[in-house]
Amino acid sequence: MASMEITQNINQSSAQNISTRLRRQTRIGENLIQGFLFLCGMISIFTTIGIVFELGKESLLFFSTPEVKLIEFFTTTTWQPSIGKFGVLPLVNSTLMTTIFAMLIALPLGLAAAIYLSEYASHKARSILKPILEILAGIPTVVYGYFALTFMTPLLRGIFGEDNVQIYNTLSAGLVMGIMILPLVSSMSEDALSAVPRSLRDAAYGLGATRLETAIKIVLPAALSGIIAAFIIGISRAIGETMIVAVAAGSGPAFTFNPFKGAETMTGYIARISGGDLAYDTPDYNSIFAIGLLLFGITLILNIVSRRLVAKYREVYE
Amino acid sequence: MISDPFAATEHNRVASGLSRRHRTGKIWQAIFFSATVIGLVALVALLWTVLDKSFSYVAIEYKVDPATLSSKPLQELTNAELVNLLEANLSKNRFRTLDRKQTLTERTHADLLTLIYDNIVEPRALASYSMSQWIASSQEIRAEVAEKYPDAKLEFRAWINGDFLIDPLSGDPLLVGVRTALMGSLFLILITIAVAFPVGVGSAIYLEEYADKNKWYNRIIQTNIDNLAGVPSIVYGILGLAIFVRTLAPLTSGALFGNADANGRTILSAGLTMALLILPVLIINSQEAIRAVPNSLRQASYGLGATKWQTIWNHVLPQALPGILTGTILAVSRAIGETAPLIIVGAATFITSDPTGPFSKFTALPIQIYNWTTRPQEVYRNIAAAGILVLLISLLTLNAAAILLRNRFSRQHA
Amino acid sequence: MTTQTNENNIIIQANDLSIYYGSFRAVKNVNLGIQRNKITAIIGPSGCGKSTVLRAFNRMNDFVQSAHNDGKILFHGQDIYAPEVDPVQVRQMIGMVFQKPNPFPKSIYENIAWGARINGYKGNMDELVENTLQAAALWDEVKDNLKKSALALSGGQQQRLCIARALAVKPEIILMDEPCSALDPIATLKIEDLMRELSVKYSIIIVTHNMQQAARASDLTAFFTMDEDRAGLMVEYGETSQIFTRPKDKRTEDYITGRFG
Ligand SMILES: Nc1ncnc2c1ncn2[C@@H]1O[C@H](COP(=O)(O)OP(=O)(O)O)[C@@H](O)[C@H]1O
Ligand SMILES: [Mg+2]
Hints:
The complex is a heterotrimer of chains A (318), B (414) and C (261). Chain A contains 13 helices and two strands. With 318 residues, chain A is mostly helical. Chain A has a two-stranded antiparallel sheet with strand order 1-2. By secondary structure, chain B is mainly alpha-helical. Chain B folds into two domains: 54-158, no CATH class; 179-412, MetI-like (MetI-like fold). Chain B has a three-stranded antiparallel sheet with strand order 2-1-3. In chain B, helix 10 (233-247) packs across helix 12 (267-291). Chain B starts with a helix and ends with a helix. Chain C has helices spanning 50-57, 87-93, 108-118, 125-135, 139-142, 155-167, 185-198, 211-217, 240-245, 250-256, and strands spanning 10-21, 24-35, 39-43, 67-75, 78-79, 94-97, 173-177, 203-207, 220-226, 232-239. Chain C is globular. Classes of the chains: A mainly alpha (318), B mainly alpha (414), C alpha/beta (261). Chains A and B meet through helix 2, helix 4, helix 5, helix 6 and helix 7 of A and helix 1, helix 8, helix 9, helix 10 and helix 12 of B.
């Protein structure tokens, strides 16, 4: 189309005029706003830096006190700052115990509820059951703490005997924590199950599989990474949960595997120490930062792993 | 069907296998359903526990029975008559001390009543029996009370009542109210919203409208926000303690503004901590709302020669606003119930005056619930239950507002 | 081919224009001069890059992060992709009407006033609204309901409102990307009539996959197609009557007679 290569022949004044009209304007307001918005976004970065820096700094202070030895911190089983014993295992142990009890409730029930809601429930049943789970998820944890102490603990003492079950015990706290986490596990698992395409189910039905076989043998494996992600988030939530254990699991670190006995968790310890009138810069006080850092590290890793898994199933099905 | 015996047995085998498979299916369906219903059972148990404890029979012992003080019920007496009652029943010294604190004749009716209860009647709650306990065994309870506390009267008491809402905190379980705590929560939430809303929406706008997703730093910001959403609230409490309570104490205590003898354990520190806590969720919710605005709207605006901010301010934000507000309400209701971070940044557990500003010491509703729950006396369980009811009703109201907003929004766009 | 073009009359000109989405070349080596106060139609099979080229003319492609260009687009001789040029200013002078009517969820009046206002219009707003609505042949239908939501209008009315909205900014060129594809035949005819009237004052470029529309409503037609790498290219450009009756290129002829696309 050689003929279309037209030489420009526009009169000079018009060209000049147009280039001034099109000249880039300096819009100070726009730039200020963009700068402000960017700063807003950066605040979350500062938050993370703040957490890592402050927890790290105070933890260093803690570990630099002469009584505290890093190895003993992680390996010994007595936490008694008043006599200079700083073994974190009792706290970690009871955190693990409450977490395990919580997961014994939340994982099977959460998954079963998710399967029911995504594979079986009629529209009407869903519209009743889902909001109930959402309400459960919206109840403040201090209320669950109250529930553990005034409902679950008497129930356990009624079943297993008042002599066997202490008023404060890790089992009660753990079980109620499981109820609290159940909605989270079920809604995340349900998301994963629903992301499995219809066509896969239809294929299974077409081969004569029952609904159960389809759900368990086809849909569940296909949604596995999302379900594992839900489990991991549930665990992370249980480890970080404070109020239920602060109310119901007992105060005072104890290294015990007895679920009927009271034992303070990592979070419970932080809450008790900081709620008291401890002087700044004592080893006790600094220890809450060290334990906080441990908590932050564990939950962060779990969250990252979980998000990776969710991203994986999204990638496959979306 | 007698033609081929082999085919018939084959048929039977398949049929019986099938019915077995269906039976297994039915059983499992019932199991899955029960798991879902357990959520409902737990919710009912929880609400029932709280309601049951909000009403109770209390064994109360009076130093002086209020009925003997006057021929009329105390509530119906005039201020002057109340002052007379005080004068008649108190020692001269005690009466004068009270009058010096604040002239008695100038005090309010409610104030005078409180004085009479505190100084003359002096009721003491000795034991408390929840509604269910009462219904199950009222005879035994009567006998027990008569034996253990011969001077006590058994009275029915609804712990959640009008006075409970408007009375300040008090050391006396029969006089305690949640006003101080409610006001604390209100102040706290206002500060939280004032900080978190602009910053959160600002971040969301930046990430959705400005950020080039291919740039490493924008990806880091986004990933970081997603990860922060999963950090336990207690860690935010520790951060708030380190940054707002201690490092920024001159600012958060109000010392910079001439507020002497203060430390950083103020409502401002708590509000800022809470703002950081809800920020990730608020950002993520707002991002979703902004992402839901159709691109055609942005194109229409840009096509007219609008700048980026003109487009966002005039078209994107108005369209996204209902979604942003819904997301904010959900984030804020989380903050209202949060307890752990407040314990860490040092909410006071006992304080009887309403907060007056950002530099006030404060308490908050969940803190009081925690505090009451951990007291050994049974009456405090009743008070905690009443406090929980107040908290749950506030949250329910907020969430209903969010749902209404969402419905109105979706109807508009239907 | 010596086109009937008065070469002084070129308002916007693509020179050796190639447009990429990331590494994918969506359009290659387009040379196209658009004449002042004419209606130019761009036709061609789906996916051949018509919209891409159109959006390049007022820098709407800037919003696609992966998009970038080779070559030049000269508006009155000024390269609109030159670093000193402000894309916002470009869009004020080169307006756009989209495939699906996209009025703002505001009143009819506000739809028109907003663009003028942000561009610094200081005159009588009521007058401007009336004039542009009249120019868009919508005034008689909406004059009693200016406060009504634009979303309550029919699709055809919405699209004319979008045209009126573009006019209120006083552009020189109006780009239209399949403006009638979502409309019924009667609304379509109305818009075509409107284009004819507007071409007295404005230069119009319309992308359409409807050949009858191009034949009916345009003065000049550019025919695009794709090569084997799916890169769009311009095959032929000339007077509409010539393109539709005496196409020079075999590919144009195949397309027009329905043997392709
Ligand atoms: N935003 C985009 N990102 C990547 N590729 C795009 C984008 N928009 C269009 N394309 C691709 O560019 C080519 C031309 O598209 P388009 O200009 O919309 O064609 P037409 O309007 O002629 O149908 C197509 O192959 C299309 O897939
Ligand atoms: Mg197109």
